[in-house]
Amino acid sequence: MQLFSTFETNTFLEMAISTLEKKGIPKENIFAVPLDNRKEDRKIFDSMHRSDGTTLIDIGMGLATAFAVIGASIGFKLAWGPIYWGLISAFIGFVIGFFIRLFFELVVKKRKRVLKGKHSEIILIVDCEESQAELIENILWSHFALGVAKIK
Considering only CA atoms, which of 26, 1, 34 is closest in space to residue 17? Predict the structure, then answer.
């Protein structure tokens, strides 16, 4: 049986490996594989084949609606009328909202991702007997593994 787990690079990984060795798992059955983390920035704009679940037009649509109502109301007093001024105001509101969201994605969320993100940097693979699997899984979880999987 094999157990796979991911860890951040820290002392808990070293403690987990030493605990496994103390419990009778030979060194030959413990494999630690470091991962290469993504170095390039994530793409902001989605394509037809890939989407990250965030949208850039949600604030723009809300502001477009609000600006269109205000522009159409004011347009009754202006020369071009309410329809043109409603459309012009909607476009201006959409552009403002789009750039607000773009700013938050590029500047604010990038800082949060860099400061707050957890990266699984090492995969730990343990070969063991099926009777030892529960014990090894508990050891890995108690040493703050980010994820654990068993394969028979």
Answer: 26
pTM over 0.85: no
pLDDT digits (tens, 9 = 90+) for 71-122: 999 999 999 999 999 999 999 999 999 999 988 888 877 666 554 555 558 9
The domains of the chain are located at 1-35+120-152, 54-118
The CATH superfamily of 1-35+120-152 is: ACT domain (3.30.70.260)
